[in-house]
Amino acid sequence: MKKIRKQLAGTVAAAVAVLFSAPVAAEEIVLKVAHFWPSSALSQKQVLEPWCAKIEAESNQRMKCQIYPAMQLGGTPGQLIQQAADGVADIVWTLPGYTAGRFPSVEVFELPFLTRNAEGASRAAWEYYEKYGKKDFEAVKPLAFHVHDAGHIHNNKREIKKLADFRGLKMRAPTRLTNRMIAHLGATPVAMPMPQTPEAVSKGVVDGYVLPWEVVPTMKLHEMTKYHTEMDASQPALYTAVFTIAMNKARYESLPDDLKKVIDANSGVDFSASIGRAWDESAPAARKQAVDRGNKFYTVPASEAAQWVKVGDRIATEWVKDVTGKGYPGQEMLDAARSLIEKHSR
């Protein structure tokens, strides 16, 4: 009997030893990633999904994403940045400009006739943020700042060839500065996030809108639109909009150091530039879908564009005055943005 008890005790001891010596499986961390685009959009297919696959591979499958497109976590596009700050989502992709006036520092990249391509301007946007934008975004951990490729004018009323053609039109625009641009060009601006635009166009709430090419077929807007106006290729882009991919700060701080390094290695200036490059590369195929439908196109020649650029100069002057009144070094910020864009767009 004693022998049996000894054998049993030895077996239990061995089992306990094995239990406590066995390696503990690392907890799998799932990051909730939210955005307002449809799941078929460039933002998810060519940016978020590859990015998530990369951090999963580099973390040895310890860190993964669960993507929630089209506002599946609830709320509106304008609330996404606060959802990141509050932890409703771990990571969001949105436009700071959807929250008018909250992030004035990065608005400068939305001034008319400032950018020439999205890749260079996105690289510039991250460098600019590191010097001028950190206070505005202290509630979150930005992972990227980028802009889209050249924005264009799309409408159903008439061809827009000159400034006078804007009169009487109601035009959708995404942010405070793009709405100001629409007003200065002569139309009535209607502020709304991109997901609301197709319904507004189909119901005649707006006559037209400003958007880059990639978004137009993504939202099937080329099927609802007759006329498209583009600037001469020698000119800077009519406008662009600033986006951020931002993470909840507490979620980031809760990660083990090695996983923080994975996030850090896949954030910042190169990530920002790669998103801009994806937008640049998307434009020709997206535009072709409108061409194939027989929609009408007009290119504003450089001689006429000079009048449009004067409008952009007035808006830039107004922006400097606005932000300087809020305590920012407005002229210095505008000069820095222009210099960085020129540096990275050669």
Automatic annotation (TrEMBL):
The keyword Nucleotidyltransferase does not apply. Gene3D superfamilies: Bacterial extracellular solute-binding protein, family 7 (3.40.190.170). GO terms for biological process: transmembrane transport. The keyword Signal applies. It holds the Pfam family DctP. It comes from the Bacteria. Keywords: Signal. Residues 1-26 form the signal peptide. This is C4-dicarboxylate ABC transporter.
